[in-house]
Design a protein that fits this description.
This protein is mainly alpha-helical and about 100 residues long. It has helices at about 5-15, 20-30, 40-50, 60-70, 75-95.
Length: about 100
């Protein structure tokens, strides 16, 4: 399944883009987020351990993690891209564009 994130990662993997170029694009994106309510009690926290795992969200950070698992990106590249995603989300939270 192809989307903007997987296309950028493929370009990085194939040497058509550098990690800095991909990170720059990642900083410009709005990233889908999962928002689960925080458990209110210890028992709620324990019960949450038995919930189904989150489903795959195309165009999300899931694609970045999958690329690392598929050895399309290195650990160093994963760190750079992870930092870029976090920066984009912080900017979004602050109401700013990067």
């Amino acid at each position: 399944m192809s989307n903007e994130v997987t296309e950028l990662i493929d370009a990085l993997h194939e040497g058509r883009l550098t990690v800095d170029e991909v990170a720059r694009q990642f900083r410009k994106r709005t990233w889908p987020r999962r928002r689960r309510p925080l458990p209110e009690t210890y028992m709620d926290a324990m019960a949450a351990q038995f919930d189904d795992p989150d489903v795959y969200v195309p165009g999300s950070f899931d694609d970045v993690i999958a690329a690392y698992g598929q050895r399309k990106i290195t650990l160093d590249q994963l760190q750079v891209l992870s930092d870029a995603v976090a920066e984009a989300q912080r900017a979004e939270d602050a109401g700013n564009e990067v």
